[in-house]
Amino acid sequence: MTTRNMSSTEQVFNPPRSITKVIPAIEQSEGDGARVRRSIGTHQLRRFPPFLMLDHFFLTDGAGFPDHPHRGQETITYQLSGATNHEDFTGSAGTIQAGDLQFMTAGRGIVHAEIPATQPLDGAANVGLQLWVDLPARLKNCEPRYRDLRSTEIPIAHPSDKVDIKVISGQSYGIDSVKDLAYTPVWLLHVNMRPGGEISQPLPKNWNAFIYTMAGNITLNNSRRVEKFNNVVLSREGSGINVSVDPSETETADFVILAGEPADQPIVQYGPFVQLTERDIHKTFEDYQEYKNGFERLKGWESKIGKEFYLRRRHSFRV
């Protein structure tokens, strides 16, 4: 793990990006018993290319995401607390622990399950973020793959004694992230900022960008105060964003800054299937139902963790 201390004044740009809108992440049901705060993929922000969905998920005992398909996108799962098992019909399986990430490319088709690996003894939820990212047209039919990033591999920038930045993907204060984790160009920075802290974070030109707040209150461009569980959509104009936590605040702020390169292509989405045309979507359903063109391995397959999940659920209902 790489760390570097650097004054927060070393990165200066003008003008900053303005705020387009602030979208509350309202809690809702998803999967099987899961609760999520969704801020992209709602009526307020259907999509924000290349981003298709952002869920802040909370999985308590008996909740999870049993066997389900994907095609045409990538998913980025960031485990904030607890742990999650995953398994798919290619034979891939594993566990991401607190602080780990999984980059999954669905490509031409995959069916997998995501189930909590552990349930904290205090009854707290397994918590994380899951981001869906559109694949460029040339990669819609690529073979599925995974890339795991362990917490110990993530470099950290320290602009001041009040700010820590996990550089998961992208660049911040002289720190570069691990490369080649996703096909789609995306920056993901996880910032922990104590009262009195501040940063000026450059963002790639013409990329769409937003900030999602998970704890505390932040101030953007020295003018707009934003509370937790909000998605701040930024304009494309400007070099970056100024973020601070007022010294009068009593809580540490925890938030992520994300940016992605939008592809010049149509997006037609039906649930977990993301294609370029309605015809492609109809063909995807046909392929999925008939076990072909990427879904051949689904026939007769059922994940072990999915079966165990339903067995536990039935047992808990009987008790």
Automatic annotation (TrEMBL):
Domain Pirin C-terminal per the UniProt entry, residue ranges: 189-293
Residue positions binding Fe cation: H68, H70, H112, E114
Iron in keyword set: yes
Claim: Metal-binding is one of the keywords in the record: yes
Molecular function terms from GO: metal ion binding
Domain Pirin N-terminal residue range list: 34-133
Gene3D superfamilies, per database record: Jelly Rolls
Cofactor(s) this protein cannot do without: Fe cation
UniProt name for this protein: Pirin
Gene source species: Orbilia brochopaga
